[in-house]
Design a protein that fits this description.
The chain is 35% helix and 20% strand. With 432 residues, it is of the alpha/beta class. It folds into two domains: 219 residues, 2-enoyl-CoA Hydratase, Chain A, domain 1; 161 residues, 2-enoyl-CoA Hydratase, Chain A, domain 1, CATH 3.90.226. The strands form two sheets. Strands 1, 2, 3, 4, 5, 6, 7 and 8 form an eight-stranded mixed β-sheet that branches. Strands 9, 10, 11, 12, 13, 14 and 15 form a seven-stranded mixed β-sheet that branches. It is globular, with a radius of gyration of 24 Å. 47% of the residues are buried.
């Protein structure tokens, strides 16, 4: 089925907040939450072809292109019952997934939904479950990208969470149970922003990969991701010619931000960082290297000295698996003093999560190139795509150190009996 998409009114293209309160309800043809307008903003001009009816189902789906790459997209209709999902609306999403799987193209979802339609009872719950089933079957087969522009509550919270990348607009809120339920069950007084806003999911929970500046930015980032994952061949990008050596400090003990090094390595303007605010001691990003899409995993010495910990290991492992699934080569920049020690880390599952990173690199079949920029110590050296894990190539910067541990720590352990009798004021000179 095909349908004609209405023309976007001029006011609808402005970056209007998805959930902004309005004194008067706008007609649907003027409401910026109209899924037709959002799909037009996402897909290339003139390429939108609806594959489902534009009715009161609460969902709308279309095929189209993004920068010339064929994709399938669906969008919540927040103008109808707040985007709540019933049997008919869930059928729209399932149909969109069937089309994407059949065409082997990325699928993008724009979410603005209060969850299942209560009036349809258990039937709506069963229908939402079919969406989850379709998403799971598509996992690892086609790229899945979610943009949350308003509420994604209840069952709608798990939809984005099942996809590869989640982008959240400032007005977006993701939560399973709302503030009223939380208050009645636990007694906690919390508002929607703190419960499921950008800071909660971008910095604390790790649910969100990209926190956007506004609604249009969220859509633009979805387009960038789709292009990077769908078009991995050579593209005419401006190759960076930065002097990478100048981006590292002369002192081996001085902390530095790894982002300029990543930006200098990748083609100009192509870097798209994921999980920038969550576990920032490891940086993961997609970009282009000489026109080809690559994934970058890098220790960031500016945060926790670049140590690996439980959260950063989980973050890196998930990213490595995603890149391997979609055939994206990996570049690993290593400057790691080891794993972050402490009781909190052990209780937080650093062994279990650290093992995920080892497993992710060891099972990956895409090309994996490692560059040790300053130091690679202990078990963290292995976890950051060491040669023993099957790295394609391992390079070392002039002056880089690869060792079981740092020299001072090694002296303290190997010569602890001799050092026990050394006065505190001269111990640093002896250890050196």
């Amino acid at each position: 089925m095909t349908a004609t998409v209405p023309t976007v009114p001029q006011t609808a293209t402005e970056n209007a907040p998805a959930a902004a309160p309005k004194k008067e309800k706008l007609p649907r043809e003027q409401d910026p939450r109209n899924p037709n307008f959002r799909l037009q903003a996402l897909l290339d001009y003139g390429s939108v072809e609806l594959i489902t009816a534009d009715d009161d189902s609460g969902m709308l789906a279309a095929v189209g292109t993004i920068n010339g790459c064929r994709v399938v997209a669906f969008c919540s209709d927040a103008t109808v019952m707040g985007g709540a999902m019933g049997v008919q609306g869930c059928d729209v999403v399932v149909k969109a997934y069937e089309r994407a799987m059949n065409d082997r193209v990325p699928i993008l979802g724009i979410w603005h939904s209060g969850g299942a339609r209560l009036a349809e009872g258990v039937l709506s719950l069963h229908a939402v479950g079919r969406i989850f089933h379709a998403m799971t079957r598509a996992s690892g087969q086609i790229p899945q990208i979610s943009m949350v522009l308003g509420f994604a509550a209840g069952g709608a919270a798990y939809g984005p969470a099942l996809t590869d990348v989640v982008i959240l607009a400032p007005e977006g809120r993701i939560f399973v149970t709302g503030p009223d339920v939380v208050r009645s069950v636990t007694g906690e007084d919390v508002d929607m922003l703190r419960l499921g806003g950008p800071d909660t999911h971008g910095r604390r929970s790790g649910v969100v990969h990209v926190v956007a500046d506004d609604e249009q930015h969220a859509i633009d980032e979805g387009r960038r991701l789709a292009t990077l994952l769908a078009s991995q061949g050579l593209i005419a990008d401006e190759v960076a010619d930065d002097d990478l050596a100048s981006l590292l400090p002369e002192s081996a003990r001085r902390a530095y931000d790894v982002h300029p090094l990543i930006n200098g390595l990748l083609d100009d303007g192509s870097t798209l960082e994921l999980h920038a605010r969550w576990a920032p001691n490891v940086t993961v990003a997609l970009g282009r290297l000489a026109g080809r899409t690559v994934g970058v995993v890098a220790n960031n010495p500016l945060r926790l000295g670049g140590c690996l910990d439980s959260l950063s290991a989980e973050k890196a492992a998930r990213f490595v698996r995603m890149c391997d699934t979609f055939g994206v080569p990996l570049v690993v920049l290593v400057d790691v003093p080891g794993y972050l020690p402490g009781v909190g880390q052990e209780w937080d599952g650093v062994v279990r999560r650290g093992a995920k990173l080892l497993h992710a690199f060891a099972e990956a079949v895409v090309p994996r190139v490692t560059l040790v920029t300053r130091k690679a110590y202990g078990g963290a050296y292995i976890a950051m795509n060491a040669r023993s894990l099957g790295a394609t190539k391992v390079f070392a910067w002039p002056g880089a150190e690869v060792a079981v541990m740092g020299p001072v720590a090694a002296v303290r352990i190997l010569h602890r009996r001799k050092l026990a009798g050394v006065a505190d004021d001269v111990r640093p000179q002896v250890e050196a």
